[in-house]
Amino acid sequence: MVIEDVKLGMIALDSFNPRFGENAVLLSQNELISKLLKSKESKELISSMKLGLLWNPYIVIRELDMLKDQVDLADGYKYKCVEGNTRIAILKSNHINSVDLNTFIPVQVLREKDFEGKAELESYVVKIQGRTHVMGVKEWDEVPQARHIYRMAMGYYVLTGSTLENIYKKIAQELALDFSKVRDMVTRYKIFSHIAEITDELSEGEWGYLEAVDRTKKIREFFGMVESDLKFEWEFDEKDFLVSPYEEHDMKKEFLINFPKLIKLIKNDVNTKVFRDTITKLIASKNNEFELVKLAIDEVINDEKTWSTLVQEANGDEPVEKIKDEWKKKLGRMKNELNTLPVAADWIGECRTDIKDIRDKVQRIIKMLDS
Q: Does the structure show a pLDDT above 80 at 127?
C-alpha cells in the first residue's frame, strides 16, 4: 500500500459508503456529489480547501469491483473512494479552480494482491472507516455509524464463524468502543434495516423512536428478536426447526410492518423518550400479553382511539382526576397559544401545514367523542 498519483477522473465515489444510506446504489455519481455537498461539513471543508490543498491524511481508494460497483466504466473509472469521499466530491465540483478531472492527486491505493484475499481487504476497509468515523475523528451521524458497525459485524461473522458476542468484543477492541455500544448499535440497526425491508415507511429521521422496541434484551425478545442469532422469529425456516417454537411470530411481524405508521402519527407531538416510556408501560399494563399490546396500538393507528387514551391505558393505576386536571391545563395552554397567533403576519402562510394538522387532529378527536 503505497502513495500513488492517480487522475481524479478515474476515482468514483463509493455508493456503498454507510453515510450515503441504503438507497445510494441507485444514485448517479453526480447525484452522490450533490448529496455530499449539502452537508455542513462539506461547506466548512470547501472553505478550508480553498486556502490550500492538504493531502494528509491521504485519500484512500481501491480498485473497482466489476461485479458489485454500479458505475459506468465508459466514464473512465478505475477506482472507488474508501476514505475521503467528501474531498473527492469537492474536487470534482469545480469549487477548487486549480483542479479538474485530469489532475493527478496523491492517494493511498488498496489492492487485493497486497492482502491474503478479498475477505482480508474488506476487513481492512471497514476498519479504516470505523476508526475515522465511529471513534470520533470525523464522526458520522448515528445511523451511518450503526450501519457501519453492523456491516463490520456481519463481515466478521461470515469470515470467522465466531459467536456474535466474540465479534462484538473484537470490534469494541479495534475501535476503542464499549462492548455494550457495539452490541446496541448492531441490534438497533438490525431492527431498523429489517423494518425497512418489510415496509418502505421508515426513515432515518425516525431512528430514535426505535428505542421503544430496542430498550432492553427483554423488550427486543417481546417484539420478536432472537438476539443470539440476530434474527427475528419469522426469519427462521424449516431448516432451522421442524416445528417453529414461535407461535406469535406472524402477529409480531405484522406489528413491525405497522409500527412506522404509529411513529408518523405521533412524532410531531411526542418525543422519543416519552414514546419509549409509554410503550414500556403499555407492555407492563397488558401483563406482557403481546396480542393485547398490538390491539391497543392498532386502535391508535386505525383512528379508533387517540394516543392520549393509549397513554392513559399505559399509566394504568394513575388517578383519573390527576390525568384529567393535567389535560385541562394542557388544553387551556393550547387555547391561549392559538388566541395569540398573529394571523395577519406575512410569514403565517409558512405555518399553514401545521395549522391544518392541528385542525385535522381536533376533528378526529371530536368525531370520536361524538360517536
A: no
Residue whose C-alpha is closest to residue 280's, from 217, 219, 192, 206: 219
Region 237-245 average pLDDT: 65
Ordered domains of the chain (ranges, CATH): 1-113 (3.90.1530)
Residue 223's pLDDT band (boundaries 50, 70, 90)? very high
With a cut of 60, say whether residue 147 has pLDDT above it: yes
